[in-house]
Amino acid sequence: MKTFKLNNGVEIPVLGFGVFQIPQEQTKQAVLDAIEVGYRHFDTAQSYFNEEEVGDAIAETIIPRENLFITTKVWLSNYGYENTKTSIKISLEKMKLDYLDLVLLHQPFGDVFGSYKALVDLQKEGKIRAIGVSNFNELRLADIISFQDTVPQINQIEINPFHQREEDLQNALSRGNVQLEAWAPFAEGKNGIFENEILSVIGKKYGKSPAQVILRWLYERGIVSLAKSVKKDRMKQNIDIFNFSLTSEDKEQIGTLQTSGSQFFDHDDPKTVDFFEKLVKEREI
């Protein structure tokens, strides 16, 4: 698996397998299948409620731990310096791991600075190899870089052909070479993305699917991507993107698919803050 080098020297596989919305009872087998087809990078989160099952798969595989790249994300209810440190200890216990390769702050709200300081300290202690944030816009990313001693290694955000985030990419690179990582590269199938005419025509030239074209497009932009599937044949397809290249004309055509913004929710909208505040309270009940 090819890798990108992060700003602290840690190497991250360019393709990751995400387990968001995979039921607990299917997670272990999905991760084992993904390992078998060649994935070495796995992305979970405290709020996905399947960290333990990811850990079960890691414990069972014959692939050495040092050859796997494991990510989790701190949930909002665990924000704050001490809460964050405690929550990561629990995540390590659930996954039966001595260290994590990457830990992210899942959302840009609440006590971000206290939690980020906890990540910095845990990284110094050797419990985390790389740290970062998720869903941070240009302003929030600049804020945390300017007022913290350690530049994040990663910003994981929504990136797909309908929401291409070129300005975010350039901003991240200019502010300490922060690596962008794409969640929902397929926009969760919205707007008929798998039947999109432009992506289909490009794919036919290379004998590839629209999904493979999207992942190749992200790779050529220097962006790590996270794909999810519980189907082994789809996993094999999603990882098979290194035997073709896109032309400048292909990329120009993909550029025309840009729409007005997120396919899910706008993190700059106060209503999104209200949504997450309500979600945190609901989960406390």
TrEMBL record:
Top-rank taxon: Bacteria
Record keyword Oxidoreductase present: yes
- InterPro entries in the cross-refs: AKR (IPR020471), Aldo/ket_reductase_CS (IPR018170), NAD(P)_OxRdtase_dom_sf (IPR036812), NADP_OxRdtase_dom (IPR023210)
Q: Which GO terms describe its molecular function?
A: oxidoreductase activity, acting on the CH-OH group of donors, NAD or NADP as acceptor
Any idea which UniProt keywords this protein has?
Answer: NADP, Oxidoreductase
Q: Which CDD domains match?
A: AKR_AKR5F1 (cd19133)
Q: Which residues bind substrate?
A: H106
Keyword NADP recorded: yes
Q: Which residues form the NADP-dependent oxidoreductase domain?
A: 21-254
- Return the Pfam families for the record: Aldo_ket_red (PF00248)
Task: Provide the active-site residues from the annotation.
Answer: Y48 (proton donor)
Site residues (Lowers pKa of active site Tyr), renumbered to this chain = K73
User: What family does the entry list?
Assistant: Belongs to the aldo/keto reductase family.
Instruction: Give the protein name, as stated in the record.
Output: NADP-dependent oxidoreductase domain-containing protein
Q: Specify the taxonomic lineage.
A: Bacteria, Bacillati, Bacillota, Bacilli, Lactobacillales
